[in-house]
Write a structure and sequence with these properties.
- The chain contains 15 helices and eleven strands.
- By secondary structure, it is an alpha/beta fold.
- Helix 14 crosses helix 15.
- The radius of gyration is 25 Å and the shape is globular.
């Protein structure tokens, strides 16, 4: 316990207080899961000003737990005497461990064997793990759709709606009807009393699968997806190796595309919150618990209203324009759901807004002027272009022949090599 409650370190100069705190925060000595997953440093300046630097690996404390911890520390800092002890009720993480240990693991593996049977990675990820230095891409888009309002309209949780819209957006990029990607679970939906206030590594990475059927209405598709997602949330504690073994799928490649709906609990749940905010400020909180993947898409409510979506990827997966279009497509899909109340079939989806139509017309009139920077070294011979497209989207339709025969880029390339 002494290691977790360190002595206060005096700092001689007030000017050095923030600099020393920053140096500790940036140090690579802390936060390693097997050597020092948790490190706390408390610095005190000559005036009595305090800086606390808290470094934790998400294998020990996830972002949800950090939000709870921040609230409790702020409340305890503001309280005094017996009120300090009364402000720290905490169910133990051992409850989660005992619940998971008692589950029927064979039944859970049987679910994953059926659910993931035949699941494949997204085709656009085929070059994601090549040992080449690629330009990193970060994109953000703010949509106007209020997911909470839409959730009431279609009787579906906001996180489910977001993940479904993401699957539809990925379908537009890949031409795949069956979309599988990694999913970060908060782990806070398990049937454990007080789990929403437990501090510990409840977070886990699992696999989400969405089979899209154009004849289904949005409402029907969401209901089917929610039924599967309920099972995924309950059984998602199994590791990716367990999933791969149960379903005979390449789980590590599937989770090269990773998604999350990020809606952390409010920290304003204490009677001392107003007082605490006056004396406890955490603007230096910089870490998070998001995993590193070739394609990471995160969505959640924006403080100003609407939905904020961000994507992190690199040029081996998609261009920055494609990343921006993916985020815009997701927002337009959500807006279409809102307009139609979820009653239209998926085949009626219309996601092109005026700005996108203008961009398409501009490109069609002068495509050479819209060439992307990463396309400057692309091959010019036809067979080279086809081979490059095989690597990117092997199962996308390349040719529509007579008698309704379709050839994918993979099939076309195979015939050319015969």
């Amino acid at each position: 316990m002494a290691d977790l409650v360190p002595e206060v370190v005096p700092v001689e100069s007030e000017d050095d207080l923030d600099a020393q705190a920053d140096a500790i925060a940036q140090s690579n000595a802390w936060g390693h899961p097997q050597t020092c997953p948790l490190h706390i440093a408390i610095l005190k300046g000559p005036s009595g000003a305090i800086r606390m630097v808290w470094t934790a690996h998400h294998a020990l404390i996830d972002a949800w737990s950090m939000s709870i911890t921040r609230s409790r520390v702020a409340s305890a800092y503001a309280a005094s005497g017996p009120a300090r002890e009364a402000s720290l009720p905490s169910p133990g993480f051992a409850q989660v461990a005992r619940y998971l240990a008692a589950r029927d693991h064979a039944a859970d593996r049987a679910f994953w064997a059926t659910y993931l049977s035949g699941a494949e990675p997204l085709q656009l990820l085929s070059a994601a793990r090549e040992n080449k230095e690629r330009q990193a891409i970060d994109a953000t888009h703010l949509g106007s759709v209020n997911l909470s309002k839409l959730a009431k309209q279609v009787h579906t949780p906001p996180s489910t709606i977001f993940l479904f819209a993401l699957a539809m957006g990925l379908r537009l990029l890949t031409d795949q009807e069956d979309i599988s990607f990694g999913l970060l679970l908060s782990g806070r939906t398990l049937p454990i009393a007080g789990i929403e206030s437990i501090i510990g590594p409840c977070i886990n990475t699992t696999i989400c699968r969405v089979a899209l059927n154009d004849s289904h209405t949005v409402q029907t598709a969401l209901m089917d997806f929610q039924a599967n997602l309920d099972e995924v949330n309950e059984r998602g504690y199994l590791g990716l190796n367990d999933l791969a073994g149960a379903a005979k799928v390449d789980s590590s490649s599937i989770v090269n595309a990773l998604a999350e709906y990020r809606n952390l609990p409010s920290t304003d749940d204490s009677n001392n919150s107003a007082k605490a905010l006056d004396i406890f400020h955490d603007s230096d909180l910089t870490g998070d618990d998001r995993a590193n993947a070739p394609l990471m898409v995160s969505g959640g409510p924006d403080p100003a209203g609407g939905l904020r979506i961000s994507a992190s990827t690199n040029t081996s997966v998609m261009s920055k324009d494609d990343a921006q279009w993916l985020l815009r497509h997701i927002c337009n899909i959500l807006a279409w759901m809102e307009r139609t109340g979820g009653q239209e079939p998926l085949q009626q989806l219309n996601i092109l807004d005026d700005a996108q139509l203008d961009k398409i017309m501009e490109w069609s009139l002068a495509p050479e002027a819209q060439a992307l920077a990463e396309q400057s070294n692309t091959p010019e011979l036809l067979h080279q272009l086809i081979e490059a497209q095989v690597d990117r989207t092997p199962r996308k339709v390349a040719i529509h022949c007579e008698h309704d025969e379709f050839l994918t880029f993979e099939q076309l390339n195979s015939r050319a090599e015969q």
